[in-house]
Amino acid sequence: MKNRILLGILISIFFLFFVLRNINLGNLLNIIVNGKYLWILPTMVTYTLAFIFRSIRWKFLFLPIKKFTAKQLFSSLMMGFAANCIFPMRFGEVVRAYIVGKKHNISKSASFATIVLERIMDGIGVLILLGVSLFFLHKVPSWTRKTLIFAILLFIGTLITICVLIIKKHFVDLLKHLPGIKSELKEKIIYKIKKFICGFEVIKDTNSFFIVIFFSLCVWLCEMLNMYFLVKVVSIDLSIFVIIFVLFATVIGVMIPAAPGAIGTFEFFFVASMMFFGIGKEKALASALIIHSLGGIYVISLGVYYFFKEGISYKEISHAR
Asked: Which of 57, 116, 287, 313 is a good FRET partner for 81, with 20 to 30 A between their CA atoms?
């Protein structure tokens, strides 16, 4: 964990160096101090809706394993997102799988698989929004369309691979013939892999799968509205389609392993995409800091509340490793 934190901090410092270079700090502080913070009010509604939609989506992802209500999953969801803000390398995803597995007595491997599939659905949701927005944007970076095509092919390939794994799950038994591994360990590995594959089985139900895609779109429409409202705090007025592009660029940035909470990578990709559309660097950075800070405060506050409420300690979380 210490090595991961150190590596994440170094990556964050690298990106922060470029985003803070040639910044007028006085101008930056002035923009932040004089912000129109009433725009936070509608954002709190869309923030909350985004996590409610995530909980509903997660409920459908779990259907082949166990029936849940969205309310049952909401606390585990918030604790996982809070852990992502506290621990490096998106360790919160592992924490979330561990917590929900332990709380509800289900396989942690299957639980983690639903989170992997959830991330794939997030990608599909963002790509659909980006694909629509490109019809309305006259100017985008040259790499955008190539990245979109690559991402679509990647997600299609991933979904096909998952389908093959589900259909041909019995092929995992071939691992029994691996030499040099004790039979008990082989059985344990095979059991874990099969449980992991079970977490993908919502794909077999067409209705549930399209419901998951629908709620993924709902999640990212809310995330887009979060950004749309909060850039107005510093008087940035951009179309929804530009905001979708900025959201897409920022999502790419936070995928890079960095310090807890994606410090540095979020700011760099947000500011770079904003500057492409003619927004000044200080104003773009001020907006990035406000959006990132508010999101972090919201997630950590709710996550820590549920950690205390459910009596989950740091020592217990560390077992999720």
From this structure: 287
